[in-house]
């Protein structure tokens, strides 16, 4: 019986809905934030506000980190790929893409994770089904982007967005390798990662043109969008995600991938007035089918099964 059926819905469903809403709304908040700030400034702003909230959680829980310098370095490397580089690339991509298309491309993240796990972790055996999932996902991305529309193909935006998802895939894989022995709570790890990511993104944000006085005013919609982006999508959502993992298991937590584009698409249409081309949901459905196949775990080898049968319970 899976973890999701061992616990009542109320133990994880509110967190699932919260993460889906927070990460789905992130694309809307980025779009609004870009009206007053440069892409790197949007990334830095969300990191600063997210770090403040997470550090406040750490202090309130009295769980100060006990990390060696080597562990801090490992978290910094992972953070560069999970919450550093992508938070610059995604706003850059949304200068060329709708928030809807950006969110649909973001759903390809698990495909990159499966690919980099296969390449960087030799002990992980890749099944034929997973390979089919990767190929199908790549085909879905082509459909999603309308690859046959040569004149209107969003090359720059697509490259930036897929670069961001590739970073997520590398970061997720490196976290399994570099952070396996780090014994800290998810809140402490998230606070450390986001705080270090501030240092990574800050030089790029400082090199960007200074925002105008209107963008920095307390009644600025762009400023409040970045505050919401940091407080929800870059702090609470991280904690809620790990609560889902703990209560319902990693598989249920990973299924957030399917909900986020739905929220982002609804907000893009209803709030931003964006349009959805017929091939975007079709391509997204193909991508998510590929994601589902790529996330399927290969069956253990017969000799491993034999060892398990012979081992003591």
Measured as a percent range, the helix fraction is over 70%
What is the CA–CA distance across the termini? 18 Å
Secondary-structure element sequence? HHHHHHHHHHHHHHH
Largest beta-sheet characterization: none
Percent strand equals under 5%
In the predicted model, the low-confidence regions spanning at least 5 consecutive residues are 303-313
Question: What count of structural domains?
Answer: 1
How many helical elements? 15
Mean pLDDT: 88
Tell me the number of strands: 0
Radius of gyration: 20 Å
In short:
This protein is mainly alpha-helical and 313 residues long. It has 15 helices and no strands.
What can you see in these coordinates?
- Helix 3 (39-61) runs antiparallel to helix 9 (186-207), helix 6 runs antiparallel to helix 7 and helix 9 packs antiparallel against helix 11.
- Helix content is 75%, strand content 0%.
- The protein has helices spanning 3-6, 13-33, 39-61, 69-94, 99-106, 109-120, 128-144, 155-178, 186-207, 213-216, 221-248, 250-254, 256-270, 279-294, 302-310.
- It has one domain (9-310).
- It has 313 residues and is mainly α.
Question: Which short descriptors sum up this protein?
Answer:
15 helices, mainly alpha, 313 residues, disordered C terminus
Blueprint (SSEs and pairs):
Layout: H1 3-6, H2 13-33, H3 39-61, H4 69-94, H5 99-106, H6 109-120, H7 128-144, H8 155-178, H9 186-207, H10 213-216, H11 221-248, H12 250-254, H13 256-270, H14 279-294, H15 302-310
Helix pairs in contact: 2-5, 2-11, 2-13, 3-4, 3-9, 3-11, 4-8, 4-9, 5-13, 6-7, 6-8, 7-14, 9-11
């Amino acid at each position: 019986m899976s973890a999701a059926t061992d616990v009542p819905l109320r133990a994880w469903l509110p967190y699932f809905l919260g993460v889906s809403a927070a990460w789905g709304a992130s694309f809307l908040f980025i779009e609004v934030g870009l009206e007053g700030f440069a892409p790197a400034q949007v990334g830095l702003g969300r990191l600063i506000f997210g770090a403040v909230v997470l550090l406040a959680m750490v202090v309130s829980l009295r769980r100060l980190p006990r990390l060696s310098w080597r562990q801090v370095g490992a978290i910094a490397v992972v953070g560069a790929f999970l919450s550093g580089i992508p938070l610059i690339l995604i706003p850059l991509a949304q200068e060329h893409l709708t928030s809807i298309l950006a969110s649909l491309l973001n759903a390809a993240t698990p495909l990159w994770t499966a690919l980099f796990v296969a390449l960087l972790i030799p002990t992980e055996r890749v099944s034929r089904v997973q390979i089919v999932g990767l190929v199908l996902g790549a085909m879905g991305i082509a459909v999603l982007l309308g690859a046959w529309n040569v004149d209107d193909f969003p090359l720059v935006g697509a490259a930036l967005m897929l670069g961001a998802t590739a970073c997520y895939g590398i970061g997720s894989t490196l976290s399994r390798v570099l952070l396996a022995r780090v014994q800290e709570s998810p809140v402490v790890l998230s606070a450390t990662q986001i705080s270090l990511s501030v240092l990574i993104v800050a030089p790029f944000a400082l090199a960007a043109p200074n925002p105008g006085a209107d963008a920095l005013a307390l009644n600025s919609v762009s400023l409040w969008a970045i505050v919401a982006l940091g407080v929800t999508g870059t702090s609470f959502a991280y904690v809620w995600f790990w609560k889902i993992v703990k209560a319902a298991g990693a598989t249920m937590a990973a299924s957030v991938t399917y909900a986020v584009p739905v929220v982002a698409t609804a907000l893009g249409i209803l709030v931003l007035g964006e349009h959805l081309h017929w091939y975007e949901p079709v391509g997204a459905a193909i991508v998510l089918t590929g994601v589902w196949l790529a996330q399927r775990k290969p069956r253990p080898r017969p000799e491993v099964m034999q060892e398990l049968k012979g081992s003591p319970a």
